[in-house]
Amino acid sequence: MAFPPITPLTTTPAAHPLGIKWTSTISVPYLRQVSGGATWNEVEWCEVEPRQGRWDWHGVDNAVQQARALGYTMMLKIRIGTCWITGGTPTYTRSGNGNTESRMPKSLSAYQDFVHAVVSRYAPMGVHEYAIENEPNAANFWAGTVDELLTLTRTAVGAIRGTDPRAQVASWGIASEPVGVGVISRLVDEGDVAQAIATYDAYFAHRGTYPRVTSGTELRHYLSTPRPRLGLELLQAEQQLLAQHVFDVRQVHFYESWQAVPALMSYLRATTPHSVPIEVWEAGQLWLNHPTSNDRVRSDQAIKTIVLMLAGGASRIVWLPLAFPRHGTEYRFGLLAPGPEPRVAADAYRRLVRWTSDLSRPPVAAPGWRGAAFPHGSATWLVVWNDHGATVNRPTGTTVNVTDLSGHRVSWASSGLRVGPDPLFVKIDARPSRALAMFE
Questions:
Q1: Which CATH fold would you assign to the domain 369-437?
Q2: DSSP 37
């Protein structure tokens, strides 16, 4: 089905690091309000060539043209699927798009030609960033071995760079769960078992499928089981390809508690070459363990996740989804409610888009504080909160405006500004060094 027609933008918005993944055009007004970031789409070989020699680019063309019309940078995940190209029958078929798990193709030469066709078609439409496959740790995405994935990746990267010298190749996008295993395993290797257990609890707080861990012995046993071992093998392979410059960008997926973000970003910085950008192509909330319908709570956590990722050095973040479908329990939190209606998170996200035009953003580093600072000329805009609660004195001779997550003005009391666990948006007519001194 074609997307509804969209009037192209008359101006190109300034680029910023915050993007959105959407599945329909029902929310075009909001998408226009926050445009200028990135989005992504899949290109599955079995979908665009369902029968040998019969091509159908219609769906991908629509998605790329729509993103461009709305002012977003499109990134593409190049996948294979399971069909005549690979032989065999699919075990998994995703609802909504009918995509299947990928297997090695019968011919690497034909696969190389397919990748060349993808890049040749979409580079003129402004697509210059690609990923090979998606979440290869998951059986519903990749049915091959790690060695097969490495062979496929090197073949694809050669075809991409040979077709578009401007192109960048992102890593596979290992799923949120095994990335957490990497974070925890590194802490164990460093001998910080207590912190590893605390991180395990924080990272998987919203999932109901993880065993309770109370000791180093139990944690090491968990890390030795097949699923974590596969995740660690893929993470090690990813790091090797990053070090060898096979990948230009580290693609990250994260759907866990915001409290695990500092440990995540610390791990990523420690295991990623300094010159390689860290891009979160999939950021979101996945509540499998007692999902909450409290809009305010989930909006609060969504903004904290995004802000801490920015403070930790993420150069690009794509929130997923824009809106969850109307049917079923909303396990993945959308910025817009099913319908879609704006949520608290939607307005806060819109403000963050305006605030992130300058990427030099030192984090708020005072003890007990969390957040990020966004320099804007001679002024500084901050999103800040304090888990334990603290009072900030109003600086003299400086204009300061404070709003809460919903955009409501927060007044200063005679004793100062009380900052608690709810994020505050603060505009200060001062440079970062002076602005951050308020929170020391």
A1: Immunoglobulin-like (2.60.40)
A2: S
